[in-house]
Write a structure and sequence with these properties.
- The protein is mainly beta.
- The protein contains two helices and twelve strands.
- The chain has a five-stranded antiparallel sheet with strand order 1-3-8-5-6. Strands 2-10-9-4-7 form a five-stranded mixed sheet, with no helix packed on it.
- A hairpin with an 8-residue loop joins strand 5 and strand 6.
- The longest helix has 16 residues.
- The chain is globular.
Length: 209
């Protein structure tokens, strides 16, 4: 269609003229145990800017030796656990799975961070930055591209307190388990109520009266 041709032309023009301002970080040496698996993985935080070119930390925990933890968690609260994965070879379309969700009022969901270009109004030079979270059950993991996986836990207001154990699993397209990362949530007998007399307006919170 005419519109499709116009969009394709704009995309070609952008690709021919735009300049990415991101600098490639120095490559980190990958321990042999991770090299044998074909990728490296490490815990991160949602506040971290994990980018497609991000490298593993200088000190990388060995496979099977680390876990994700929310720390103390109260009813009514959302907490996240994050994992970065950087393939050294093309892993194809992998599957993601959660073990242990839906326990006594504790629910869990899987998302991955999607990226987008970030630029000013007067230039087409751009940076690549985290943009949104997207729910997924599969994830393409090409060589040399870091992806961030986010597990979001939510405790209902009537959730039973106690230590909960879950696990994030990364599997190949054929179902082979590539990685299993334990997740712990320490749910306390405290309820975080979100009732408020403050009103949310266009410019933020507005005091009552």
């Amino acid at each position: 269609t005419w519109l499709g041709e116009q969009i394709a032309q704009v995309r070609r023009d952008f690709a021919a003229k735009a300049v990415c301002l991101d600098q490639a970080p120095a490559k980190q040496a990958i321990p042999a145990a991770w090299q044998a698996k074909g990728f490296a993985a490490w815990p991160t935080n949602l506040e971290d800017s994990v980018l497609p070119q991000s490298q593993p930390p200088a000190v990388l925990p060995a496979p099977g030796t680390f876990s994700l933890s929310t720390g103390p968690m109260v009813r009514g609260e959302y907490e996240t656990g994050c994992l970065a994965v950087r393939p050294g070879r093309d892993l194809g379309e992998c599957r993601l799975a959660l073990e242990g969700g839906g326990q006594d009022g504790l629910t869990a969901r899987l998302d991955v961070v999607r990226y987008n270009t970030s630029r000013g109004f007067n230039t087409i030079a751009y940076h690549i930055r985290p943009h949104t979270l997207r729910p997924v059950s599969t994830l393409a993991l090409p060589a040399g591209t870091t992806r961030q996986i986010v597990v979001t836990l939510h405790a209902a207001e009537d959730a039973k307190p106690g230590l909960r154990e879950l696990a994030l699993r990364l599997l190949s397209a054929a179902g082979e388990e590539l990685l299993r990362v334990p997740i712990t949530a320490d749910l306390r007998p405290v309820t975080l109520r979100r009732d408020t007399e403050f009103l949310m307006g266009y410019f933020g919170l507005m005091p009552p009266g």
